[in-house]
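Bump. Still looking for assimilatory sulfite reductase (ferredoxin) structure tokens.
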Amino acid sequence: MTASPGTSPTRTSNRPQRAQGQWALGYREPLNPNERMKRDSDGLEVRQRILDIYASTGFDGIDAGDLRGRMRWMGLYTQRAQGIPGGKTAVLEPEELEDSYFMMRVRTDGGSLTSAQLRTIGGISTEFGRDVADVTDRQNIQYHWIRIEDVPEIWRRLEEVGLTTTEACGDTPRGMLNCPLAGVLEDEVLDATDVMAQTVAKYVGSPEFSNLPRKWKTSMSGCVDHCTEPEIDDVSFVGVRNEAGEAGYDLWIGGGLSTNPMFAQRVGVFVRPEQVTDVWAACTSIFRDYGYRRQRNRARIKFLMADWGPERFRQVLEEEYLHHPLPDGPAAAPPKHEQRDHVGVARQKDGANAVGFALRTGRIAGTLLTRIADLADEYGQGRTRTTTQQKMVILDVPDERVEDLVSALAEHDLLVRPSAFRRGTMACTGLEFCKLAIVETKQHAQDLYAELEKRLPDFDEPIGINVNGCPNSCARFQTADIGFKGSMVRDDSGEMVEGFQVHLGGHLGVEATFGRKFRGHKVTKAETADYCERVLRGYLERREPGERFAAYVARAEEAWLL
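Sorry for the wait, here they are.
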């Protein structure tokens, strides 16, 4: 980590500050359209209007404040109308960009799914979403092409198997991350499954936290690989053992990417498992009460944490919210392994195996999700997981069935032993469905890794290539070895075409850093394969023994990377 307690300046509460819309300081008057929308009606209240009104009136009968605001509290965003080019994204009004269909996000906290749940998710995609689904890097599953008339029936089917879309989006506690192999691997620090479930059950969907300044991303994990990427979450509980050997959590606050990326900072406390839910609620309350609401682009907790520093955050946490001190705690151990995706075959502590496999940049058909559910029943015990790298895992596979499962998955292009490029490539939703996107991402990322497999067939070093459709970093381009941020680029003929700004050498874990970018350096969409090949060949020629790509980039001359 790049920051620790005491490394950031602490601002006292007596220091004059411009009003930032902080409730705790008395600034409750709504200061922007989003805050007025939430004042007028809590986002959770839209559920009943969907059931009672909008499912009958259809898309044209939806109130604008609900359509482009509160419906997010139920996991619903209007999707981008087809055929609108990326150059129009910043020009058109929301109502001109949107289609009469919705993206719907299913909340799958910790990525844990039974075969019955996965089969239901797959069936809904096939019947209501044109057989399209995305496994996201937040362990959720997203639908597209959803009609408002079908939402009540979709909710009914999800709720029958214990799933929901509540607060999957909006200014709320979003889906929480946990290691997909929690409770399974012998070397985990501890299993966060129960504390996460307790926190979700108590607070998700509660009006207590249904009006936060912005989104609130949580991870709770005892994974030795830090697979939930706690460095870039708003609040993270990271497995650690104290000096007495007791397992608990190291608390990190204030990570986030988008246009102002920041790494989380350690608060410096040791949180016992039985304290997690209360500490999470206290941290969330600080965000609710002290978060900056005046300007939406500064409403994430990373900005508050940057101003306060960990010492003041701890003081407010203990004195104003917990009303008792927390013990000092040690820093979590660095990640054990470089790759955090749990792809491949891993031994479970009960002697069975977890089999992780790569999708096609998270894009999948509902029929294929149903098939994966069938395979989980046939080869395991019906337990599946999603990962934070847009991958999936089937648990509980006996030794003698592993290779048969590997072959069965490969029949559907689901690879347990993918190439470095297939394994390391991620992509956001992109221009196809997202109103914020500037470029298409999903298919381009698939074409890119397929082309690199042909050009560099022997490349076997871990390499992360993240393809993002806009500056908002849903695919985390700043933390990738090669990160592509979508933008319009002028090609050799002078035409404006889809392209990317390049970020190189992003890295999490020890000495975490965001990728290097070079002024004015962009590539067109058509040039990305050539660019990757050129830079990666340079790495293979110049690398030192054992040197990873990110370390090479850190010392590389600029000319090597252009």
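The domain at 188-335 is CATH 3.30.413.10 (Sulfite Reductase Hemoprotein; domain 1).

Edit: fixed formatting.
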